[in-house]
Amino acid sequence: MDIKTATALRRLRLVSAPEAVSFLILLVCSVLKRTTDFDAVPVMGAIHGVLFVLYVIFWADAWNRTKWPLKTAALYFVLSVLPTGGFFAERKLRREAEDAVIAARARKEGVVNA
């Protein structure tokens, strides 16, 4: 994995959890708006919107660089529209990055998969 691909995956991973948190907070704000006088939806909506757009941009870049199969790319996109999906995406991306580092070290040391 080259440095640009690793960077693209890292950016996507780093925006996944904040995007998920903002989605959950937006849902709470929506409920509070309808049950109380508290209305933070415009602010949280804007914050979540920016994070979601960043997620989609970083997702497209990671898909382009990693050459994921359509199924994998679709999974990461679907996780972005589920309220807690960003947490699962972050964990899966972290594992993918760790596996790539292990594979790169094995190649460097001349270890061949059996």
TrEMBL record:
Entry keyword set: Cell membrane, Membrane, Transmembrane, Transmembrane helix
Primary location: membrane
Annotated ranges, domain DUF3817: 9-95
Keyword Translocase attributed: no
Transmembrane segments: 39-60, 72-89
Domain of life: Bacteria
Topological relation to the membrane, as annotated: Multi-pass membrane protein
Listed Pfam families: DUF3817 (PF12823)
Subcellular location: Cell membrane
Protein's recorded name: DUF3817 domain-containing protein
Organism: Streptomyces achromogenes
